[in-house]
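== Sequence, structure tokens ==
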Amino acid sequence: MSWSEADIPDLSRRVAVVTGANSGIGFETARALAAKGARVILACRSRSKGPQAVARIREAVPGADVLFDSLDLASLESVAMFAKEITTEIDQLDILVNNAGVMMPPLDYTRDGFEQQFGINHLGHFALTAHLFPLLQATPGSRVVTVSSLMHFAGWIHFDDLQAMKSYNASLSYAQSKLANLLFTRELARRCKEARVDVIAAAAHPGSTRTELQRHSDLMQAAVRFFAQNPPSGALPTLYAATADGVGGGDYYGPLFGVAGPPARALSSPLASDAVVARKLWDVSEDLTGVSFPPLEPLDLED
């Protein structure tokens, strides 16, 4: 399969939210969506880098309909405030890209007491998607794309120590959060299918891509220096999942050759398809965040 930005369909009158859109894959995802006519909201933590990213996209795509809204996924209060503000600005949401993340930092905790990687990469996006789900349900054919990683293969959901109170390994905690991204995607897809809700939940991974994400790991920085894609190429699996025809609920996309290449169906670990673990993680995520998804109901197109 050969697929590039040129294959993204016209996205005029579509609205997208991309988290972590001020740099790397998130920036390239937002830029490419805007270039195809979508209105794109850059959901970023940095109040300085977010507006700078908006300016860079407008420079690259004259007339681009892009704006910045502050979102700190390490704060459930910020997530709720962002969602509340967004719902006053837009009445549809065609594409939600859960892209932001942290990778292998020293042990630290979010404002709500969650281990940083699990809290930001999974719980923050879980809560954000739940808050925005009424908009997604009200938009025919909407999609939720969550960015995972090849590292999910090393992941295991440690329900007895999700906040790393007993022990902490930066790499394994990152792997756990990326596995959680896939489990969340597939459980959301299952629930949408059972309720006949017209929302596609899919996932993607960028393979090996040079971004700021590797800044906490000297080993990862060295690895991507010698063999890695540039961010525009790394964003293609996400863009495919968000816009291409034929994408289904629970699908997972990555580079054709695993670490590089055009987007294609990606392999995932057996645990990433474990329905029992996925349902337990969903319940635990609701308990930890205090945020529940609204009732999933089919969109009545006759109204």
